[in-house]
Amino acid sequence: MREQPVLVFDGDCGFCTTSVRFAERRIGVRARVTPWQFADLAALGTTRERAEREVLWVERGRVYGGAQAVARLLVAAGPPWSLPGLALRVPPFRWAAQGLYRLVAMNRHRLPGGTPACALPAGRR
Questions:
Q1: What gap in Å lies between CA 41 and CA 59, rounded to an integer?
Q2: Contact residues for 8 (Cβ-Cβ < 8 A; gap 6+)
Q3: CA–CA gap between residue 101 and residue 108 (Å, rounded)
Q4: In angstroms, rounded to a whole number, what is the distance separating the alpha carbons of residues 18 and 25?
Q5: Minimal CA–CA distance to 54: which of 102, 110, 125, 119?
Q6: Is-cis flag, bond preceding 116, omega within 30?
Q7: How many angstroms separate the CA atoms of 82 and 77, rounded?
Q8: What percent of the chain has pLDDT over 90?
Q9: pLDDT digits (tens, 9 = 90+) for 56-80
Q10: Is the per-residue pLDDT at 47 higher than 70?
Q11: Number of CB atoms found within 10 A of residue 22's CB
Q12: What 3 state SS string does the chain have?
């Protein structure tokens, strides 16, 4: 039996939590979903610093972050989501997606569902 992928997100961030819940309802996340605050990050092959910075998709011992984590989530969801997910994995779409992801991540406290706490480093929340 193949091990289920894991989607790791910031459970203290309202925008992140809202986004993950939306993906679960509308896209159909085919992964175990867990806030990084409750995940065994070392066992997943990643660090707290990385999990604080970006959403993570862990599959078959590999860790994908940011826009590539979103791309993997979409591919795993199957049609019709797999097509945009595959597109996000190749240049120039990959580059654009990563830039957009960084912009959203840096401003998540200003977005719907975001709170001022989203702007703080995890150690200060």
A1: 13
A2: 34, 35, 36, 39, 41, 44, 46, 51, 55, 56, 57, 58
A3: 10
A4: 11
A5: 102
A6: no
A7: 6
A8: 78
A9: 999 999 999 999 999 999 999 999 9
A10: yes
A11: 11
A12: CCCCCEEEECCCCHHHHHHHHHHHHHHCCCCEEEEHHHCCHHHHCCCHHHHHHCCEEEECCEEEECHHHHHHHHHHHCCCCHHHHHHCCCCCHHHHHHHHHHHHHHCHHHCCCCCHHHHCCHHHC
Structure tokens at 118: 């989203």
Say which amino acid occupies 51: A
